[in-house]
Design a protein that fits this description.
Length: about 270
């Protein structure tokens, strides 16, 4: 989003990478190899997305919607629509490292924090991150000053796919099972966390720290609603409302002229 793009194929990455991890683990009894396969599978999806978007020139929202359906379908076909249990990983090193607890805190929390730190460094202290923000602010200007926008955008989607593959492994280990629909329902929460955290709708501005705390807020909302005994579908209602509110707020901050124009249209005399 900071680069002026959007990736809606995240649920498909979770589904396919989760399958690769479960399949390799069950077939070859090699969970660490399964981890690599999952990350590589996610990266491959990212490469395909990046190529179609950056080289062919198809808008990212169109491509990632299409590839989301495609790769989700592939995951369902390969798995036969069946879930895989991974109880054999109970007590193993990979389960303890990636999905255990440290001082009573789930390991996933530390991995999420670690990924956030790495992404923060890339976005704020590395040339690649500077290029992405430049591209998000103005792709044409970025091209004029010598930034290879095609290469950087392909790298961006590849990185997003690889991180999605890693997230798929964490989710699969947490449940000690794989099911083809895993990842569905996460997209709205992920986007809401990004916009709540302060990332601009128009690209060019982003804050990893804000997105991290945005994810915490969404997680607490989810847990709080469930804890009150309210029906689970209300989670989607609340998150959807938060998502729309955050987007409207950002538009008001980033493009106040558009808000003033809307006010004139709504309240001007006929």
């Amino acid at each position: 989003i900071a680069a002026g793009e959007i990736d809606l194929s995240f649920p498909a990455v979770i589904a396919l990478s989760g399958f690769l991890f479960a399949y390799v683990t069950r077939t070859y009894d090699a969970p660490w190899l399964g981890l690599l396969a999952a990350i590589a599978g996610g990266a491959l999806i990212g490469v395909v997305n990046g190529f179609l978007i950056a080289v062919i020139g198809i808008p990212s929202i169109i491509i990632t919607i299409g590839t989301s359906f495609f790769w989700s379908g592939i995951a369902t076909v390969l798995s036969g629509g069946m879930s895989y249990t991974l109880e054999r990983l109970t007590g193993t090193a990979i389960n303890g490292i990636l999905s255990g607890t440290v001082l009573g805190i789930p390991s996933e929390a530390f991995w999420a924090l670690g990924v956030a730190v790495v992404v923060w460094f890339i976005l704020n202290r590395h040339r690649f991150g500077e290029h992405l923000l430049f591209i998000g602010d103005s792709r044409e200007v970025a091209r004029v000053v010598g930034i290879n926008t095609l290469r950087e955008r392909i790298k961006l989607f590849t990185l997003m796919g690889a991180l999605g593959g890693f997230a798929a492994v964490l989710l699969t280990l947490e449940n000690l099972s794989y099911f083809p629909t895993q990842g569905q329902g996460m997209l709205l929460s992920a986007l809401a966390a990004v916009f709540i955290g302060g990332t601009s709708v128009f690209g060019g501005t982003a804050t990893v720290v804000g997105s991290f705390f945005g994810a915490l807020i969404i997680g607490m909302l989810d847990a709080g609603i469930v804890a009150t005994g309210v029906a689970g579908f209300w989670v989607e209602v609340i998150v959807g409302l938060v998502f729309v509110s955050a987007v409207v707020l950002h538009i008001g901050i980033d493009d106040p002229a558009r808000i003033r124009q809307l006010q004139r249209r709504l309240f001007s005399k006929a």
